[in-house]
């Protein structure tokens, strides 16, 4: 029997995709943003989607039908109360209230496992107070935890993206988190086959012009005949002037004083380095001043498809909605390759249980 999953705070479905690739069936998902939920539905047509604010749903009515049906609940509830400064923050901080709904659904459905992903600071905030409270909450409903920080780069994703992963198992010792792989992928390994576009060029749907160059590209282009979401931002004349001054592997130190801006972001006005992984993809990767998101050679920021490649989404995964929505979908996602590796340790644990 195929193990079944509920995805909460699902976004476009990076976690879901990784679990599906590992052999799970995603039976239910919840996402508050309608435009993002529509992308999820397009790419996961067999999954039931509840579009709406989880705090306003009848939690019991919506989720009790999945008790004794679902094996895993996954998701990344937004938690912002991790500041080391000022007032002491806890699980009850109002900025962390969405976490309570994740716990509530787990307590109702009682899956054998759950996986929660979040910012690394969740494990160290307030000298470990937050993770202690999380452990206590789940312990009360019968779960034992395994947790740590994983870097997507260690799992074949061309990006340094560190995320806290909390894996729970009901009335049993949870499996260890995956340890990574030897395969390391660079930015150029990921995007060198995508059509070369100048500022403002490209379409939401176009033909490939370059054959795949690397194993990673062949993998992500599998079954894809059309190139989607590869449309370059149209930069201003001033931005293009600045970018033209920045050589390959260069950054803002290449700009004269009159072109320097007051951006607070690390990597601002810096080109991506072809032989290295990307910095963490954010939701503003279309702006050269918002981080190291300028194409290694071309005078423009990266496209949605290039960012999706760096996040390990296959080209068959199509992002819909406005450009700002597409950027949120990509920038907030869990890399599917990382998710698949997490899912595999659960699959292995399920199979070992069957053999006990």
Task: Please describe the topology of this protein.
Elements: E1 4-8, H1 14-21, E2 25-31, H2 34-43, E3 48-51, H3 59-63, E4 72-75, H4 97-109, E5 113-118, H5 125-140, E6 143-151, E7 162-170, H6 187-191, E8 202-206, H7 215-221, E9 227-231, H8 237-244, H9 304-310, H10 323-331, H11 336-355
Helix pairs in contact: 1-11
EC number: 2.1.1.37
Active site: 79
GO molecular function, one term: methyltransferase activity
Indicate the radius of gyration in whole angstroms: 21 Å
**Oligomeric assembly:** single chain
**Number of domains in the coordinates?**
2
Structure class = alpha/beta
- Looking at the structure, the CATH topology of the largest domain is Rossmann fold
What is the CATH architecture annotation of the largest domain? 3-Layer(aba) Sandwich
β-strand number: 9
Helix content: 25-40%
State the low-pLDDT regions, or none.
none
Biggest sheet, strands in spatial order? 3-2-1-4-5-7-6
Which overall shape is indicated by the principal axes computed on the Cα atoms?
globular
> SSE string, helix = H, strand = E?
EHEHEHEHEHEEHEHEHHHH
| End-to-end C-alpha gap | 17 Å
CATH H level, superfamily name of the largest domain: Vaccinia Virus protein VP39
Instruction: Give the biggest sheet.
Output: 7 strands, mixed
CATH class of the largest domain: Alpha Beta
Average of pLDDT: 93
User: Hey, roughly how much beta strand do the residues contain?
Assistant: 15-25%
Number of helices, counting only DSSP H or I runs of 4 residues or more: 11
GO biological process, one term: methylation
Keywords: Methyltransferase, Restriction system, S-adenosyl-L-methionine, Transferase
Protein name: Cytosine-specific methyltransferase
Family: Belongs to the class I-like SAM-binding methyltransferase superfamily. C5-methyltransferase family.
